[in-house]
User: What shape does this take?
Amino acid sequence: MSLRGLAVDPRCRCIETESRRIGKHIKSVELFPPSPHCKDLEIIATLMTTGQEICLDPSAPWVKKIIDRIIVKKP
Amino acid sequence: MSLRGLAVDPRCRCIETESRRIGKHIKSVELFPPSPHCKDLEIIATLMTTGQEICLDPSAPWVKKIIDRIIVKKP
Assistant: This one.
């Protein structure tokens, strides 16, 4: 399973992050808080159509907006 | 892989949600926005020690607090 930007090294999962705004294509978002294995917060989105996993930049405002929109959105 | 509270039915993943505050035990949190398959926002935490996946209540204030703490926390 080739995971764009995901590290092979078990410590941190992300090598690079996606700069394009892919909000509309996101099926799920997984948050990995800093841990003994990786000192960085990592945010990995799974894309709807391909199921591909893509690292998002935790410091990018649009990423936080997506997360806020997901958890605040009322059906 | 027995997933506490997770549905066998592919539509929604969660049948029940965890009411105890398990913030300290969380390795990662995955957010599943409402979709054609499931009209509910679903939040699934993976526990550190066991790797067990547990559904969290999206409407519980402590759950939102955990997510905010994860994405706002600076290392």
Notes: The mean pLDDT of chain B is 85. Chain B touches chain A at residues 26-35, 39-41, 43, 58, 64, 67, 70-71, 73, 75 (CB under 8 Å). Chain B has one helix and three strands. The helical segments of chain B are 61-72.
